[in-house]
Write a structure and sequence with these properties.
Strand content of chain E: under 5%
Number of strands of chain E: 0
Low-confidence stretches of chain B: 501-511
Largest interface: C-E, 75 and 93 residues
Oligomer: heteropentamer
Mean pLDDT of chain B: 87
Radius of gyration of chain E: 21 Å
Largest sheet of chain E: none
Shape of chain B: globular
Structural class of chain B: mainly alpha
Distance between the termini of chain B: 57 Å
Shape of chain E: globular
Strand content of chain B: under 5%
Order of helices and strands of chain B: HHEEHHHHHHHHHHHHHHHHHH
Strand order of the largest sheet of chain B: 1-2
Radius of gyration of chain B: 22 Å
Helix content of chain E: over 70%
Chains: A mainly alpha (615), B mainly alpha (511), C mainly alpha (104), D mainly alpha (473), E mainly alpha (175)
Structural class of chain E: mainly alpha
């Protein structure tokens, strides 16, 4: 098997190309089969690989060919496979397969069915390349590849300008991070002479001391890339808008896989980050800040997908926190569980939207508990996991993160406290969603319930969201072992109880109505704060005025090509001379004579007066 | 002789094309296509007898016999001017690119030329002949001759078959390039004169002039003449303003050749002449040149963003992309140079394809204004998909040729100057901005009602075939660029040795 | 008759004065006939200078040139006066400021 | 005078005999065609005479120098005159009956030009110039209709006479200073005279320069050029532009070289200023000119500016390369200008309305041969490679660089860059698509256009034989 | 010494007469002044030992060429009206600029010439010497001069004949 892991990304890629080239000639059912089966096969292969790996714990390195070889720069098209890769691949192919399956029903009526699957397959391929790459350049290929697929899928319904706008925003904002990351690559290669991750980390440890400047800069540049892709502050603004894409896309790309690529990147290069503690602190702070910001914002949203989007941002913030505090495996673990429950939630919301004639506003839903039972239970389980209620998958992963954060010297407790606040908020907004959508009075009537192709993925994901916390991820070989110490028990108790408090609060506010917050919400402060949170802390507005509008203004100003003005000036100058001289050609002989005499005077002056020193 | 034949075939082919118009209306384009393919085939046949291109010996820069091909015959012995042609890896790449894009250009203009077809195809073939000459000539006078002569057919192509404002554009194009050409002529003659006064012989041969000794001040001025001439053609900021007009107004085939091939002659000239002839001053000058390159990258991108004319946008994107080439050349290390060569090839394909799409749109919609477009994907999904491919290629998606090029340039540049690299790298962001905007305004968005029942015809098999050639080329360049790199490597190696750069590879990392 | 001690520069001075006056006349007169007369004055000035220079060097060449100048003057005036007749006939004026149909 | 002298004078004698033959013919029976044939035969014989005289190289009296260089130019202007003769055949309005004088004047004018080319003495310079000029006045005013020829003629006459007066006065001053009238004598005694009284000889040379500069239409003595070019019948304009200017320039270079005037830096400075103003003024004036004859007039101003650069370089270089450059440049210039005027003459004729650039629109498609010839001529004037004009410019720049005349070369580049614009305008106009009739020129004109076109291209693309030949003159 | 005095007198006459010629409104008056000037120059020629030149100056210049002018002026029949117009044209605004130019030129020439020294030759150049020169080294010049005169003749014939013919035609048409 180890020799054929290249098949895993290749199969979805081939399927994608097939669908692109011949999609218009295939039947809908054929398209569905090709699209789903390719990912299914990839998933099976991954499963096979996993079983092999569990047995022998063998790291696989496979080089297909040298991509390019220039002056010692020789990145290969080569793969590296270890426990971390396995986790990522499993998530990608596994969750990916479920979402593909879900999509066959969800997108059935769309005229661009083939195009959809082509993009989605290509995304899977690119994502697999990203996680399997053994060097940063190939990783970058996957990285940009998923970016393009994300762009294509967000703007899938290109007929609406808003979708196109969202897609471009998604691409360009992440590109900002990517560019910084590319600079990081340049720096790393220049300094270390290789981009091969393992060799590079080894070389880095030889070359640099902990706390050196260059690794700090390199790490920060990589973090920029991660921040962009993973929608962290300050480059998170694209993700809520990216919800313009079809909902399964949101589930796959903007919840389960692509947005966690940043987390993967940092985890993958943790050897570098260990050399730059400052960078790690930065990661942690970014993570927790993002997490809180997003949680507050999610609290105020009314669009079901936007709530989930902000929740994703917030959860990835937790992962960043984990990475920042050195809880590598906890971060990856949370990545995996999050993939399960967030995919579940997105698919659930997709089901709702699908059945509710594309209704997004949660306050126009209500009372769906009885009419869409499968969806209801999916949401219950997913929200529980998201809120990290005990025994759900999210509970285990989040708990680990918070506890390890607490143990960090100096800022540890502060991070922990902030994390707790985030957890509280998470519980509130997730159950706000549940109560508003599924309980109370029905505002819109669903025209159907989910079909089996939607129900099966939902059920499987429910299961995973419940039990995912019990999985052991095989990353112990990848990351340095934590010291294994445990904080005081009260810390653990507080961590466990906070989400429950949150759920209760949500219950009292949004279901039973016992807790009246109208007064608070309607106060001036409350209103403006609410508005502030609703708008995502005004960051979009800020960027709009700081960057977007000035750029448009600049482009508009320069549109007329100011440089050409220089040449215009030269032309004008020539025309002026032409004009003057033409006027001098008046046709009058006496004037001509005068000019000749003047010329004669000039010539005599020059010849006779300047003649000193001749010969 | 092979090289002479290559040029002569095209020249004669041009005459045939004119004559063939008497046979039938569609004959010229067939003849032209045939001629280019024959030329290409001829070259390949001749090459097949040669040692494998990937195992080329490094040509010794000043030893003709070590080159892949070399031909020399007297022309004007009174001044030591000869017909000296030679081929090495880089020339070969450029010649192949020229012929392939030539065929593509003919295909691009298959239907949109309606008057004086014979003369059109003739001009196209003649300009190709001139370009081939530029890429192969190693006698400076001969080089200059081809350099100037290839512009005349190009001028006619713009002036006769161009769009609404063709007179202005053709004139601007010609004056810019000719005026800068005059500077080059002065420089060539000055160089030869310096050599003459040192050695007492008249010679225009590259090989003889390589080792000309001269005072730094002299070398500086002469180098500047070459530099400006080449940068105008490249085009580098701030000498680029002819390009948007020329590209916009030229017929499709003209734009394809202009963007795909003609711009590369500038870059080729820089690599082949401007730096090696004056290694020290050129490298002293490199700082300024690189800033110009970076400025071009940024400026081109910003201006592209502001355009509403489809072709103009692509034209400015060329300015931005060719900025990378300038950067790559003046970083003058192997990585960056390879990047520059790659960029020449990859940009040739990607931009040519975009111009073809622009031409197809113009042919169908009779406008290039993107405000008139919107939502065309619905009517022409194939064209939309193809456009999407080349747009992402042009914004530098990894896996496609342009990325390899830009990354290598940046990588090489980073070793020379960090801050310029940072500025240039912003081109990746701004590049994405204008590329996607292009896509949004033309193919995506709400369908413009005007075109819904307009009976727009999607790409047919001829167009798709042409496009497929370029797509495959870009993909291959993107994931396995090694043949191109191998072909260029020995040459670059020998140039680097020749200039024996004391160029400091010190990284100025901000501490 | 011996030409005696007349300094060369005085003669040349006279000739230059004649030349300048002729030139002035050329520039200020609008009537073509006066213009031709001015030309004669200028040519005459040159002739005077030649003869003087010839005398200075004691060579006959100065006078030879003088005679050729006479020829030139005659030929020019002959054609010039022919043109004057045409001018009068077609333009109905001798004012040369009116002869400015071509300009720019 | 002995027999070899007569042999050496063969071209001049044959031309004189042709003039006499024409007079006799006119007195017997006036017939334009016969006059045309006699003239043509005279030119051809004279051409033969020029090659015959090659075996009798010598100075003929003190006035003329028959050598290879002058014989080459004699042949060249005779060829040019033949072209002009070919163009002159049916340009004059049919109602004027007495056209024979035109041919007589043409022959006399060519005679003047030949004398000018061979002159080594002030007297022959003066006479050659005047002979050429006086005949030209009448040729310009020759047409019996229209006011423009008359206006052109009177302007040319008055201004030219003024220039002659300047020239003569300058000669007088030089003579007063040096006591010599022959170039060689001036060269020999000039330095001593200069040492004694530098200003006199300088002022004299300057005035000569002004007088000759007028004939070459060097700025600021250029103002007559466009008006005369426009007013004169097109073949006469062609004659003026090629034969007259070419001969005068040859005479100037001889004067400059033999008189060793290049050694005076003051004079050089004056020449430089003239060259610079000519290059700039000529090109600027032509920039937006609509009338193609005026445009060519302005273009010629610039071209003689370029050519002056070569003379200035004499200070630094030996005369060999200089005279080679002059030979090449003048040959290229004469061929190119002839081609241009040949086309203008066949296409526009004598109709002022047809001389506008806009009247040339679509010429490419109606009359491809003429359009090609004019295109090549324009490209050659603009100095595009593969044309004779390029090689000519190549010589100028080479010479300039070798002498380190950077300032002049910079102006040359600026001027040429400006020049491209207006040459291209003509080409662009011709390439426009218009509906038009394909009226064709007569056979003779076609042959002339084709021959000139070929000559320009051959000289530009395979110049080696000619360079070698010019080097041996 | 007497010669020098004569020279100055003749020069003064020549200059004054020329100035008068240049400024007259009436063409015939101007012409007469011009002839006076030419005669004065002839005197100078005589004084500096060029009697042959002096004779030619009188015979050809004053005698022949000026008569040409007279004929033409008579043919054109310029009347009082013409004189008036001429006077109008001689405004300072018209002659100021040219006068400055001429003055500058004159100053330059004077500067140049004043540096010259030495008298004219003591021995006069006789007509014989001139004749020998003319038919010795300058024989070709004489021949070419004849061609020049021929050109002048043909040219003026062509131009003048047309004038006369058309005039006659018009008159006949009028009758």
């Amino acid at each position: 098997m180890s020799e054929t892991i290249w098949l895993i990304p290749l199969i979805p890629l081939l399927s994608s190309v097939t669908l692109m080239l011949f999609g218009s000639r295939l039947k809908v059912s054929q398209i569905g089969i090709i699209g789903v089966a390719s990912v299914g096969i990839a998933a099976l292969l991954t499963l096979w690989l996993a079983t092999e790996f569990m047995q022998n714990q063998q790291v696989i390195q496979l080089s297909l060919w040298t991509w390019m070889e220039v002056a010692g720069f020789a990145p290969g098209i080569s793969f590296y496979f270890d426990g971390l890769t396995l986790v990522m691949m499993s998530v990608i192919t596994g969750v990916g397969f479920l979402i593909h399956l879900f999509s066959t029903e969800f997108m059935e009526k769309d005229p661009s069915y083939a195009r959809y699957f082509a993009y989605l397959n290509m995304f899977v391929a690119a994502m697999l390349v990203l996680v399997m790459a053994d060097n940063l350049l190939l990783l970058y290929l996957g990285w940009e590849g998923v970016g393009v697929c994300s762009y294509l899928l967000v703007g899938f319904w290109y007929q609406h300008n808003a979708n196109g706008h969202a897609a471009r925003k998604a691409f360009i904002v992440t590109r900002i991070g990517d560019t910084a990351m590319a600079l990081g690559l340049l720096l790393l290669f220049t300094q270390l002479g290789t981009l091969d991750i393992q060799a590079m980390v080894g070389e880095a440890n030889q070359t640099w001391q902990v706390g050196d400047t260059i690794p700090l800069i390199a790490c920060l540049l990589l973090v920029c890339g991660a921040v962009g892709k993973s929608a962290q502050l300050p480059l998170h603004t694209w993700l809520p808008d990216a919800m313009a894409g079809p909902t399964p896309v949101s589930a796959l790309i903007h919840a389960a896989t692509m947005v966690t690529a940043g987390v993967y990147l940092i985890a993958r290069t943790h050897g570098l980050f260990l050399l730059a503690p400052t960078a790690m602190t930065v990661v942690a702070v970014i993570g927790i800040t993002t997490s809180l910001m997003a949680a507050f914002t999610a609290l105020m949203q009314t669009d079901i997908k936007r709530i989930l989007a902000y929740s994703t941002i917030s959860q990835i913030g937790y992962m960043f926190l984990a990475l920042g505090v050195g809880a590598w495996s906890a971060g990856i673990f949370h990545l995996m569980t999050h993939a399960f429950f967030k995919a579940l939630l997105f698919l659930g919301s997709g089901a709702i939207i699908h059945c509710l004639h594309h209704e997004h506003n949660i306050f126009k839903m209500g009372g769906l508990r009885t009419r869409m039972p499968v969806t209801f239970w999916s949401f219950m389980i997913g929200s529980a996991a998201l809120a990290a209620l005990p025994m759900t998958s999210g509970f285990f992963s989040k708990d680990q993160i918070l506890l390890q954060a607490y143990q960090l010297p100096d800022i540890g407790p502060a991070l922990w406290m902030a994390g707790l606040l985030g957890a509280l908020l998470t519980a509130i907004y997730s159950f706000r969603l549940v109560f508003v959508v599924f309980f109370g009075k029905a505002n819109t009537e669903p025209d159907k319930d989910t079909g089996w192709r939607m129900a099966v993925p939902l059920s499987v994901l429910c299961f995973l969201a419940m039990v995912g916390g019990w999985f052991m991820i095989p990353v112990s070989e990848v990351f340095p072992a934590s010291d294994g110490s445990h904080p005081a028990h009260w810390v653990e108790y507080v961590s466990i109880s906070v989400p429950i408090v949150g759920v209760l609060l949500a219950y009292f506010i949004f279901y039973s109505g016992r807790l009246k917050i109208d007064g608070l919400a309607n106060s001036t402060l409350g209103k403006s704060l609410g508005q502030f949170w609703l708008s995502g802390w005004g960051i979009d507005w800020l960027y709009d005025h700081l960057f977007v509008k000035p750029y448009y203004g600049l482009a508009n100003m320069l549109k007329g090509e100011p440089v050409d003005a220089i040449y215009g000036l030269i032309v004008a100058l020539n025309q002026t001379f032409n004009h003057w001289l033409s006027v001098a050609q008046s046709g009058r002989m006496r004037w001509y004579l005068a000019s000749m005499v003047a010329g004669l005077i000039l010539v005599i002056t020059l010849a006779a007066n300047l003649s000193e020193g001749a010969l | 002789m092979v090289m002479i034949n290559l040029i002569v075939i095209l020249l004669v082919g041009g005459l045939l094309a004119i004559l063939s118009e008497r046979i039938s209306d569609t004959m010229p384009r067939k003849v032209a296509m045939g001629v280019v393919l024959v030329d290409l085939l001829y070259l390949l046949v001749c090459l097949s007898g040669m040692p494998d291109i990937t195992q080329l010996q490094a040509p010794v820069a000043n030893d003709p016999s070590s080159w892949l091909m070399h031909f020399k015959a007297d022309w004007i012995p009174a001044f030591g001017i000869s017909i000296e042609l030679a081929l090495d890896g880089i020339s070969l790449l450029m010649v192949l690119l020229t012929l392939v894009l030539g065929a593509i250009a003919i295909s691009a203009s298959w239907t949109d030329i309606v008057v004086r077809k014979g003369f059109f195809e003739a001009n196209l073939l003649w300009s190709l002949a001139g370009v081939l000459g530029v890429f192969m000539a190693l006698d400076l006078m001969l080089f200059f001759l081809f350099w100037e002569v290839m512009l005349i057919p190009m001028y006619f192509m713009i002036a006769i078959w161009g769009h609404e404002n063709r007179g202005y554009a053709a004139m601007k194009f010609f004056i810019f390039t000719q005026a800068s050409g005059l500077l080059m002529l002065m420089s060539i003659l000055a160089l030869v004169a310096v050599n003459h006064s040192a050695t007492g012989t008249w010679t225009f041969s590259y090989f003889d002039l390589l080792n000309t000794e001269m005072a730094e001040q002299t070398a500086y001025w002469i180098m500047l003449g070459f530099f400006i001439a080449f940068v105008v053609k490249l085009p580098g900021f701030p000498f680029h303003t002819w390009l948007p007009d020329a590209h916009t107004q030229a017929p499709t085939a003209g734009s394809v050749i202009l963007a795909g091939i003609l711009l590369k002659t500038g870059a080729y000239g820089l690599i082949r002449f401007a730096v090696p002839l004056f290694p020290e001053v050129a490298l002293n000058f490199s700082y300024a040149a690189m800033w110009l390159g970076a400025a071009g990258v940024v400026y081109g991108a910003v201006l592209a963003f502001g355009q509403t004319d489809f072709k103009r946008l692509i034209a400015y994107s060329s300015v931005s992309h060719m900025g990378f080439v300038l950067l790559g050349i003046y970083a003058w290390n192997e990585l960056a140079l390879q990047g520059a060569v790659m960029q020449m090839v990859a940009h040739g394909f990607s931009t040519a394809a975009l111009f073809m799409i622009a031409g197809s749109l113009q042919e169908r919609l009779h406008t290039r204004d993107m405000r008139e477009m919107s939502g065309l994907w619905q009517q022409m999904p194939r064209m939309g998909a193809v456009a999407m491919f080349f747009v992402v290629a042009s914004l530098g998606l990894p896996g496609l040729g342009n990325f390899v090029a830009e990354f290598l340039v940046l990588l090489g540049l980073f070793q020379v100057n960090v801050w310029i690299t940072v500025v240039a790298a912003t081109g990746l962001i701004t590049g994405a901005a204008y590329s996607l905007l292009l896509m949004q305004r033309s193919f995506q968005g709400e369908a413009n009602k005007k075109w819904v029942d307009y009976g727009l015809i999607d790409f047919g098999s001829r167009e798709m075939l042409t496009m497929a050639v370029m797509m495959v080329a870009l993909i291959v360049l993107g994931i396995y660029p090694q043949p191109v790199l191998d072909a260029a490597q020995p040459v670059l190696q020998s140039l680097l040795e020749l200039t024996a750069t004391p160029a400091v590879a010190v990284v100025e990392v901000v501490q | 008759m011996d030409g005696l001690n007349i300094p060369l520069n005085h003669i040349l001075l006279v000739s230059s004065l004649l030349f300048a006056i002729g030139m002035l006349g050329l520039m200020i007169r609008r009537n073509i006939i006066f213009i031709l007369m001015s030309l004669e004055v200028m040519l005459n000035a040159a002739a005077l200078a030649f003869v003087a220079a010839g005398a200075h060097w004691g060579q006959p060449d100065g006078q030879v040139v003088f005679m050729l100048i006479l020829t030139v003057a005659a030929a020019e005036v002959a054609v010039g006066l022919g043109l004057v007749l045409q001018v009068q006939k077609r333009f109905k004026t001798l004012d040369m400021d009116h002869a400015n149909r071509m300009q720019g | 005078m002995n027999a070899t002298m007569f042999s050496a004078l063969a071209p001049i004698l044959i031309l004189s005999l042709t003039a006499i033959a024409l007079m006799i013919q006119a007195s017997i029976k006036r017939d334009q065609s016969v006059a045309w044939v006699i003239t043509a035969i005279g030119f051809l014989l004279s051409l033969w005479g020029a090659s015959y005289a090659r075996d009798f190289i010598q100075s003929v009296t003190i006035l003329l120098q028959v050598d290879h260089w002058s014989l080459f130019f004699t042949s060249l202007i005779l060829l040019a005159s033949l072209v002009i003769l070919g163009l002159s055949r049916d340009i004059f309005s049919p109602e004027g009956e007495r056209k024979e004088e035109y041919y007589l004047l043409l022959v006399l004018s060519v005679l003047g030009a030949v004398v000018l080319i061979q002159s080594t003495h002030m007297v022959s310079l003066l006479l050659g110039m005047e002979l050429m000029g006086v005949a030209l006045y009448a040729m310009i005013a020759f047409p019996e209709r229209g006011e423009l020829p008359l206006e052109g003629a009177i302007k040319y006459l008055v201004l030219s006479a003024c220039a002659s007066a300047m020239l003569l006065y300058g000669f007088a001053l030089i003579y007063a200073a040096a006591g010599e009238l022959s170039y060689a004598g001036i060269g020999a005694k000039g330095a001593a005279a200069y040492a004694e009284n530098p200003m006199l000889i300088m002022a004299g040379s300057a005035m000569v320069l002004a007088g000759i500069g007028f004939k070459l239409s060097v700025a600021p003595f250029h103002m007559w050029t466009p008006d005369v070019y426009q007013g004169a019948p097109t073949p006469v304009t062609g004659f003026l532009a090629t034969v007259s200017k070419g001969a005068v320039f040859v005479a100037l270079s001889r004067f400059y070289i033999d008189g060793a005037l290049y050694q005076y830096s003051g004079l050089n400075t004056a020449l430089m200023v003239l060259a610079i103003t000519s290059m700039l003024v000529g090109n600027w004036l032509a920039l937006r000119q609509e009338n193609i004859k005026r445009l060519l007039a302005y273009s010629s101003i610039a071209h003689f500016g370029y050519l002056l650069v070569v003379l200035i370089a004499l200070t630094h270089l030996d005369a060999g390369l200089i005279s080679q450059s002059i030979t090449f440049y003048l040959t290229a210039y004469i061929l190119t200008t002839l081609a241009a005027f040949a086309v203008v003459s066949t296409v526009a004729g004598e109709d002022p309305a047809k001389q506008d650039i806009s009247a040339f629109e679509g010429l490419f498609w109606h009359r491809p041969l003429e359009a090609s010839a004019l295109t090549v001529a324009m490209l050659s004037l603009a100095g595009i490679p593969l044309t004779a004009g390029f090689m000519a410019k190549f010589f100028v720049i080479t010479v300039g660089i070798q002498s380190g005349l950077w300032g002049l070369l910079a102006v040359l580049v600026v001027g040429s860059a400006v020049g491209i614009y207006y040459y291209l305008r003509v080409i662009f106009a011709m390439s426009k698509s218009t509906d038009g009739d394909g009226e064709s020129a007569n056979l003779l004109e076609n042959i002339l256009a084709l021959a000139l076109l070929a000559a320009i291209l051959v000289l530009g693309s395979w110049p080696q034989p000619f360079i070698a030949y010019a080097g041996g003159l | 010494m007497l010669e020098i005095v004569f020279f100055y007198i003749a020069s003064t006459v020549a200059l004054v007469a020329t100035v008068m010629a240049m400024t007259r409104a009436n063409a015939i008056h101007a012409l007469i002044y011009l002839i006076v000037s030419l005669l004065a120059v002839a005197v100078i020629f005589f004084l500096i030992g060029a009697p042959f030149a002096a004779a030619l100056e009188i015979v050809i210049y004053a005698g022949a060429i000026m008569v040409l002018f007279v004929f033409v002026i008579m043919m054109l029949n310029l009347g009082e009206k013409g004189d008036k117009q001429e006077r109008q044209w001689l405004q300072p605004s018209i002659w100021a600029g040219p006068a400055v130019l001429s003055a500058v030129l004159l100053i330059e020439l004077v500067m140049v010439i004043s540096q010259t020294n030495g008298p004219v030759s003591v021995t006069a150049v006789s007509a014989k010497e001139v004749g020998l020169a003319l038919f010795g080294p300058y024989v070709l010049a004489v021949e070419i001069a004849s061609m020049l005169l021929l050109a002048g003749l043909v040219g003026s014939f062509h131009l003048g004949r047309r004038y006369l013919e058309r005039d006659n035609l018009e008159k006949q048409g009028g009758q």
